[in-house]
Structures are given as structure tokens and as C-alpha cells.
Amino acid sequence: MRGPPAGCGYPFAGSHRTLRRYSAEGHILGGELVDTLDDTAFTRAFTDPSVALVHVRAVEYGCFFYEVRRP
User: How many C-beta atoms lie closer than 10 Å to residue 46's C-beta?
Assistant: First the structure.
């Protein structure tokens, strides 16, 4: 996913979310609980150059919503 069109916001952004970072090999590199799902949260997640993709997950049960890949 390259992200929504400008001004549309992110899907499933209405509550706390977990951003789980993964390497290209599929290893979990960490995660972050975010209050607001926005560009700043994804910028922080992709600061580490070894992060290839980020999963957006629900906090309550860890349900997977979608992933964002490094452009």
C-alpha cells in the first residue's frame, strides 16, 4: 500500500493502533503503540533503513488490518 490519496486519512485510524515493523526477511524489528495513525507515525516507523514494511494492527487483540511497504 502506498497510502491513501492526500486528504483521505488512513483506514482504521479511529483508535489506538500498533505499528509493527518488519525486515525484508520477515523478522519483527519492533513496534509502537500510537494514539494517532498519521504520517508522523509512519515516518518514525521507517526511520530505521532495515524496516521494509509496517503492519497496522488493533491493540485489543492484535488483529492485522493492513501493511504499508517502504516506497
Answer: 18
